[in-house]
Amino acid sequence: MASNNSETRGVVPGILKVFEAGGKFFNLRVTQSGSLINHKGNYVVNDADTYSEIIKNEADDVKYSLAGKTYKLRYKFSDDKMLLVLKGMLEGKEGVKSVEFTEVWKRVSTK
Asked: How far apart are the first and last CA of the chain?
């Protein structure tokens, strides 16, 4: 689920957020016509409540100014570590307002 203070969207099927042990991450969007990486880069855990995403690349059709920026996000895990809640602010591209957001991600297993 994602919200931006004015609207709430339900689960968006086909989007995965992948964190790799070496400090890299990417968001992968899967559609009926194929899949693409929305954005990718590095991440750094700042403390017990925040981490930063350093965006290296973004897809052409994204609405927010991501590439070349560092976004500091608040994070919290559920007690069972199956849910991750992220909160932050994204800068809009020209003509698009910046947006405060909350995302809830569910852990998936590859087993």
From this structure: 24
